[in-house]
DNA sequence: AATGAATGAGTCTTCATTCAT
DNA sequence: AATGAATGAAGACTCATTCAT
């Protein structure tokens, strides 16, 4: 299995070159704004070659986003593995997430383009990868609860809360504030871990303390 | 004040009709994917009329996002005014935010398109409105701190943290989970208010309790 | 007869205002490049009014060129009348012609536009006026021949030769040389009157002297 | 040197076909009146191909006028080379000029369009070619003066006078008279060479004979 | 396998003309 | 009579995709 094109013999270097320039173009110009010719030019190959490696512009886009996803997953996983404890792992992953996008702003744009252009219509393959990432994080939370480090939260919801917070932080926070995504992410994840209510307030309203979600 | 076209006499109904169909089209097809002809057709006017009311497709887009922003601002403000106390106001606004986008999913798409297509290049007017919204929220936090309901957080950062969380929740959470944006938002904002750490954990690590942000 | 629109009551001042701005617009932007709205704006009337006074953009253009023609005819006629003798009249008319276009470069552009946009498809009315002008000039030449001031040239051809020379001078000469149209016209008409051959050359080749046109 | 598109490999036949149909379309419909689609259709290529060979409609137009200019230059140069003597060369070139436009009336229209649409805004390249043509003609006049065939005229002005006369003849004369451009040109150039004043008149007014140009 | 020339459907925008007020 | 809002046909230019070399 050499790639999406089955038995075709491919040059991995060429494939990677195309992918790298795709990130640049899609990030800078958007999916619709990108001319496949430009990707070919920047990658130093003919336009026909781009179509040989990726069947269509859309396929190329999905391959691009998947590539970015993998890189993101890698850095967050590695960050987690370097520390112990649920909070530490969450913080480390959050930091790595923000650092990745701050170091690779083009990757952020690609993510945003994906959501904007294709809503939730990602290929099944992409969803699979996403679910795996979620599951991995849920385990971290579960471990934290088991060890008494975290209170007994709904891990499914909380993973998504953290994901939402981080996504919002890099997308929304990063460009509307004068603070760097990393600074914002640090602050946000810590605040998320601790909450913003005062001790007195928490002590007074026990129903909140239990983290119940009914209304 | 007749609109962006100065002294031109305009039919407000027609303007509104164009704007409404713009939301639909931009949301369903994206900015680039939308043909102005389609907006005109759906609004029941000639294409030339669209260009009379809005000078270009881009202007129309900005008018559309501003319209959505106003509606969003209105519901969150009204929600805040109906309750007392910082936490209650924050929760109410967050709920209203999520409810708005759940009831008007097209508006959410428009927001996403804005970010995707134009990065941070919103017109000055839009930035102004944004700043006002932020300032209003900061005051709520400030009041909460003054009254002892909230601990002494950095209001600027925290407002953005909440904004990021909510944005992430409706954009990211809403489409990757099987939970509704409203459910997610409720959970996330409560979690954010309370934090996810256990009492024991908090008691043990006092430096976190103070909300310090150093690394 | 109030104008091309028969019995309609018209305001001559308004009509003239439209005509004047038409010259400016057609000259600066060309026939196709001119937006009727701009003429209306500059003339301080509504676009509908332009169409009331002139039935179409093309009609307005013809009215504009006719207006220019009349002004040109007027100055050349008056120049002729101020002097006596064929050569003097020809020179005076030529000078007036060049002066007119140098003082009113917009009028020149209108003439050029007419030729470019409509080839020889001028309305009959325009042709009539043209013929009258030609006839008038032929008479001047005829008188010059009768008085012995001019040799016995073909007046029809020669009138057109002069017309061609002057037209070419203001159109071609005026914009390709660093000399003013007036200077060029003076030089050209004098050269045309005298010829460029040396006396000796003329004396030697008598067949040329007779101005025969056979070949 | 492949053309204006640098290293693009081009089919000269296709390029020529487009150019030929451009002449037809621009001549028949004017620059603004021509739809590039029509040129493509007539040339039997896709519209995209037209834009591959010429970057824009305007570029195509300039390439068209330059093509015409070269053809005109070629016939006039060849005509001059076939004869000896200044008068003969001038007559030959004038005849060739008129013959060219009579045989290729579309080329004339293209020249007229150029002047009408772009005033003097021709690309530098075009101006260069023009200057070369002028210089060549000036040399002919200079030689004629040196040999005693012509009187001592200002060669710069006189070249432009001849150019103006010929331009006027084919543009103005050709369409306002029932005579052919060739007939008109023959007559006009001979008249220009000889002048139209009688011998007696010339003998009487010596100041004219010297060709002085002051008023 | 690699290329890039060719294509034509698709899109934004303009503007002459009409007609209701 | 005067206006200018509304219209939609028209036209320049782009670009994803194909396919002959």
Describe the structure.
4 copies of one chain form a homotetramer. Chain A is mostly helical and 215 residues long. Chain A has 2 domains: 1-55, Homeodomain-like (Arc Repressor Mutant, subunit A, Orthogonal Bundle), CATH 1.10.10; 65-209, Tetracycline Repressor, domain 2 (Orthogonal Bundle), CATH 1.10.357. The first copy, chain A, has 11 helices and no strands. Chain A has helices at 12-29, 36-43, 47-53, 57-81, 86-103, 105-118, 124-146, 155-176, 181-194, 199-204, 206-209. In chain A, α2 crosses α3 and α7 (124-146) packs across α8 (155-176). The longest helix of chain A has 25 residues, at 57-81. The first copy, chain A, is elongated and about 65 Å long. Residues 206-215 of chain A have low confidence and may be disordered. Chains in contact: A-B, C-D. Chain B binds a DNA duplex (21 and 21 nucleotides) through residues 8-11, 35-37, 40, 45-49, 51-52, 56-57.
Q: Would you give the CATH topology of the largest domain in chain A?
A: Tetracycline Repressor, domain 2
Structural class of chain A: mainly alpha
Rg from alpha-carbon coordinates of chain A: 20 Å
Binned, the helix content of chain A reads over 70%
Taking the alpha carbons of the first and last residues of chain A, their distance comes to 52 Å
For the largest beta-sheet of chain A, the strand count, sense and barrel status come to:
none
């Amino acid at each position: 299995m050499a790639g999406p094109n089955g038995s075709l013999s491919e040059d991995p270097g060429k494939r990677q070159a195309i992918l790298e320039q795709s990130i640049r173009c899609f990030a800078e110009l958007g999916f619709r704004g990108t001319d496949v010719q430009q990707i070919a030019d920047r990658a130093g190959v003919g336009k026909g070659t781009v179509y040989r490696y990726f069947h269509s512009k859309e396929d190329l886009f999905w391959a691009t986003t998947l590539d970015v996803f993998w890189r993101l997953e890698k850095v967050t996983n590695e960050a987690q593995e370097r520390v112990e404890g649920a909070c530490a792992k969450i913080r480390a992953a959050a930091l790595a997430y923000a650092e990745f996008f701050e170091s690779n702003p083009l990757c952020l744009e690609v993510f945003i383009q994906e959501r904007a252009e294709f809503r939730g219509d990602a290929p099944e393959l992409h969803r699979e990868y996403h679910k795996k990432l979620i599951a991995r994080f849920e385990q971290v939370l579960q471990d934290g609860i088991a060890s008494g480090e975290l209170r007994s939260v709904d891990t499914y919801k909380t993973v998504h809360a953290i994901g939402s917070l981080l996504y919002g932080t890099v997308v929304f926070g990063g460009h509307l504030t004068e603070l760097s995504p990393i600074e914002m992410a640090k602050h946000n994840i810590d605040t998320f871990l601790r909450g913003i209510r005062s001790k007195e307030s928490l002590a007074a309203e026990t129903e909140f303390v239990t983290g119940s979600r009914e209304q």
